[in-house]
Design goal:
This protein is an alpha/beta fold. The chain has a single domain (12-396), classed as Glycosidases (TIM Barrel, Alpha-Beta Barrel), CATH 3.20.20. It has helices spanning 65-88, 91-99, 127-140, 202-219, 240-257, 273-276, 305-316; strands spanning 21-22, 28-29, 31-33, 104-110, 144-151, 169-172, 175-177, 190-191, 196-197, 225-229, 262-266, 288-295, 325-332, 379-380, 383-384, 395-396. It comes from Favella ehrenbergii. InterPro entries: GH, Glyco_hydro_5, Glycosyl_hydrolase_5. Keywords: Glycosidase, Hydrolase, Signal.
Length: 398
């Protein structure tokens, strides 16, 4: 099986640790993710969300792409996003990637890109053109692109990386809760008591299929497009029969219309052959790739880096039992959860089991739309997840 190791977010300084992907020739390739560009995540671009510190619920608080657009509205939201798109990724960065022999990038995009809905209408105008620019630029530098549908309507996992942190409940103007009821409801309404879906939302499933059709129609023949991933990280409680049916339908579309493209499917946090080897027949899985994501930060805390390496080796040994090529589409070497807003905007989903050191919060990278926060304040709300380690959540003075 082939193994692909790109990183979660775009960071040129880390490219030396790069990705390993065994190409058809058996030679390793280098790759990375362009995270936070087309799908906002507060931990990747925290300064984009400074403007919401100190705000109340009724004033509008952006915690993800959906609420970002909802809080700012179509005009201001689009102005900020256009500035972000222009400054977060530039041709100079492609030149730097090419100099470092990067050969493939994974581009997370939202299902609103070609057919915006709700607060995305107007707010995300211009996204299609910027993606076309990226593909054209990638082609000039001979860099392949995996189009990754990172966010789908209804949220496939409840995380902010799905476009909306589902479900976020405001308990008052300054406090909210999320992680206690973070459900993936793309497939349907989740019943937490029974641990199952009340029913399957076929409209959402069809919307996601139509999203792939749109990608095929718009960019399917673009020379830079190498692969498509129809949904990123559907959560572990996904109805697997429904998910497999969706995967089969999407792959059939791709195979009929653009058979050269690789069909990449996420393992829904079930990295084992027993779950996935029946997805396609033994004689019918050409250009099929299983994508698994591995993060040390969420594993059991280890005191020795060698133990992490041993654990990682044991996990990746599972690849031999998967009949498809295996890509590790996201990974990180961090062994802690100290990154600002890793668990969401002013939120956390981990208890206080690790020590973190504080550094100055970065200034905004935006050219014209940057906003800072009150750096003299002792702390700034709004606040989520009471009782969890505050070191991982609100901004504090110093």
């Amino acid at each position: 099986n082939k193994i692909f190791f790109p990183m979660k977010s775009f960071a040129l300084a880390a490219l030396a640790a790069s990705s390993a992907y065994a190409a058809a020739s058996g030679r390793a390739m280098v790759g990375t993710n362009i995270g936070g560009w087309m799908v906002l995540e507060p931990w990747i671009t925290p300064s984009m969300f400074y403007r919401f510190l100190g705000k109340t619920h009724s004033e509008g608080v952006g915690m993800d792409q959906y609420t970002f657009c909802e809080a700012l509205g179509p005009e201001e939201g689009n102005a900020v996003l256009r500035d972000h798109w222009d400054t977060w990724m530039t041709e100079e960065q492609f030149q730097q990637m090419a100099d470092r022999e990067v050969e493939i990038v994974r581009l997370p995009i939202g299902d609103w890109t070609l057919k915006p809905y709700g607060p995305y209408v107007g707010c995300t105008d211009g996204a299609k053109d910027k993606i076309t620019w990226l593909l054209d630029t990638a082609q000039r530098y001979n860099i392949k692109v995996l189009l990754d549908v990172h966010a789908v309507k209804g949220s496939q996992n409840g995380f902010d990386n799905s476009g909306i942190g589902n479900r976020t409940i405001w308990t008052d103007e300054n406090n909210f809760s999320h992680w206690e009821h973070a459900f993936g409801e793309w497939m349907g309404e989740w019943d937490n008591d029974s641990g199952s879906y009340k029913s399957i939302n076929q409209d959402n499933i069809n919307w996601a299929k139509d999203t792939i059709q749109g990608l095929l129609d718009t960019w399917g023949e673009h020379p830079a497009v190498y692969a498509i991933e129809p949904v990123n990280e559907p959560w572990w409680a996904s109805d697997l029969d429904t998910l497999k049916s969706f995967y089969r339908d999407v792959r059939a579309m791709m195979k009929e219309q653009q058979p050269r493209l690789k069909f990449v499917f996420h393992d829904s946090f079930h990295f084992d052959g027993n779950t996935w080897n029946d997805l396609f027949a033994d004689d019918d899985h050409e250009n099929v790739v299983l994508d698994t994501h591995q993060y040390f930060a969420w594993w059991e805390k280890r005191g020795d880096i060698g133990l992490y390496c041993d654990d990682y080796g044991a996990v990746m040994n599972m690849a031999q039992y998967v009949k498809y090529d295996v890509w590790v589409g996201e990974w990180a070497l961090a062994t802690d959860v100290c990154a600002t807003w890793l668990g969401g905007f002013n939120d956390a989903n981990t208890d206080a089991n690790r020590e973190c050191q504080r550094v100055d919060c970065p200034k905004s990278y935006l050219a014209t739309q940057g906003v800072d926060f009150d750096r003299t304040a002792a702390k700034l709300g709004p606040y989520g997840s009471p009782g969890l380690n505050p070191d991982h959540a609100p901004i504090f003075e110093g």
